Amino acid sequence: xxxxxxxxxxxxxxGFFFSGEPALKSISLMVRKNEILSIIxxxxxxxxxxxxxxxxxxxxxxxxxHQGSILLDGEDIYDRNVDISALRxxxxxVYATPIPLPMTIFDNLAYGPRRKGIRDxxxxxxxxxxxxxxxxxxxxxxxxLRTSALQLSGGQQQRLCLARVLTLEPEVLLLDEPxxxxxxxxxxxxxxxxxxxxxxxxxxxVTNNVKQAARASDRTxxxxxxxMIELGDTKSFFTNPxxxxxxxxxxxxxx
Length: 255
Known about the structure:
By secondary structure, this protein is of the alpha/beta class. The protein has helices spanning 47-53, 84-90, 105-115, 121-134, 138-141, 154-166, 184-197, 210-216, 234-239, 244-250; strands spanning 7-18, 21-32, 36-40, 64-72, 75-76, 91-94, 172-176, 202-206, 219-224, 227-233.
């Protein structure tokens, strides 16, 4: 697989193993700059494992190992000289369950930049405001920045966690079931934010909600038992799938 200038991430025959058992099998795909790529599939299909491979969170597993390569802007993120902390700043992640820090809304947002060494109050405030606006949360909390983030609703907490990632000014956003516990209104707000964010970021969205993938993404990939079965433009993916297993999954025959 040859990387093109418009490709932000290229996975080449990438596999991942836990205690010798394959969780991913020779995944080859390209993620374009400024697109939303959704990854769908049933439980234990390898979706989250692949997502965590993109910023090397799977390195935390003592008995995990990989094969193949993943390129970010043409450079292999598994090269032994890669600065993993810098990689994780470039490739930010939002998890299924929002976990705001037990501090104020502002301090949640300033936490990452402060760890990067940013101390200027004006800079921190600008980062906080900008990230909240990008996460479609500013209008709801701009007068509450000194209150505890734990007082926010679930949907607001998830958008705060998205904003917290954005303060680190990443290039890629990884979202692992970000709307799994949210009501339809909060889900719609997240999806609206993603459409705006893709102008600046490359976004990979893992979701069990097939309708969300159809609504929110430019392209969609279907994973099954550690393999990528199909990848295509979202409209054609859902209207004319090329593999019967894809068709069976998106029509609810299994999963």
